[in-house]
Amino acid sequence: MERRWSIWKTLLIFAVGIALVLLIADAIIMGSAHRGIEAELARIRARGEPVSCAELGGPPIPDEWNAALLYEKAFQMIKTPPMSNQVKFLDDLYSSVFCSTCRTSKQTVDKDKIEKTRSALKQLEGLFAVVEEASRKPACRFRIDWKSGPGALFPHYTNIREISRLAALGAISSAESNDPNSATRFIRLAVVLEESIKDEPVLIGYLVRRAVLSITLSALRQVLETCDLTENQAKQLFDVLGQIDMWHAYKNAIIGERAFGLWCFDAARSNPGGIGSLFGSSGGTNNPLSVATNTVYRLFAGSRDELSYLSFMRRQIELADLSYREIKRKRIRMPDENDVPRYAFLTRMVAPIFGTRMMLFRDLSIAEIAVARAALAMEAYKARFGSYPNSIIELKKGLGLKLPLDPFSGSDLKLRLQKSGYVLYSIGPDLKDNNGTPFSRPGDYTSPGDIVWSKAR
Hints:
Blueprint: H1 2-46, H2 67-79, H3 83-98, H4 111-122, H5 125-135, H6 156-176, H7 180-195, H8 203-226, H9 231-242, H10 247-270, H11 275-278, H12 288-300, H13 302-319, H14 324-329, H15 345-350, H16 357-385, H17 392-399, E1 414-418, E2 421-426, E3 451-455
Antiparallel strand pairs: 1-2, 2-3
């Protein structure tokens, strides 16, 4: 009996010893991870980048400078009768008649519909006047509860997209009525709306900007197909589109997403329910199982998980300085779920993992803007000289303009004249010149194709 007790006693002492060694080792590892976190946060602060969601809103600005207050007034206008009735009527017209997917470049719109559209738009003149007034303000800061972290709401995104569709409709219907001055004005207003959220460091805002930009460029394409702009009108829109910066805004959005992730780690530490409380686990935040699980997580994985998240996001942000072309040609591997350790539960939940997809969207937007600006330069050239230039070099020399490069080639865009117009294009994400052949399926960028702007008249 004594011998059996001695064996159990020895095993117990051995087990306690092993446990102590493991606890000490864990304390060393977690301490090292904690120091790594502090060092990385210090590096982020030294770069002037936010480490908390509260910092995402930036410093306060005076009301008299803030365009957002006027935009909020415009948002109320489109929701209040009788203007809301006109908005609904125009939105239906846009979706069924005027949008680019509803017609080809050779199709004309019934004159009666054009007259009804322009008549309805005139009743929204007060709305567009407010947007124009907002565009003259030096800053724009919408009221967003950034401290709520991932719970922050952005209701203004829906309204911005709604009014941009109205502006696009105004541009298209004006062009159909051979009123290039009004068409130019409406395109400029659509760009103003897109730019109103350019400083909001969040990926959803970046995607909304891309959606509004798509609406705007589609309208511009129809405007140039339908009516002739003067040289000054074309140059004005050339400059307006040149103010759009999708490159740096993308990196700022990733930096903002990092702050959202850090908010989740802070919330998991401060809440007894830990990770489960962030994602609505049953049993409440004081559920014994949740508390016990979170205690184990904090002791053995919490700091290492957060350091893993910071390392993952640092790599994402560093790669945001590279173009899609560089990533593909150098065969740079993008961070993915395989780079996240198994113990990093929260990193797996909150880290944005999208490979090259967002970079592709960014560079597609840049290419689409570049092609649109080049098309406007073509119209300005024709307005001055009476015909289109034979090459991009001739276009640049004739107008003395600095044209944007193709982000997918790093060189000039491609231009090919036709009997009745031209084909202008970027080589697209396959990084191959397909001789101005558009994608076989719109939006399917996995197939061969170029980003094409053609004019048949």
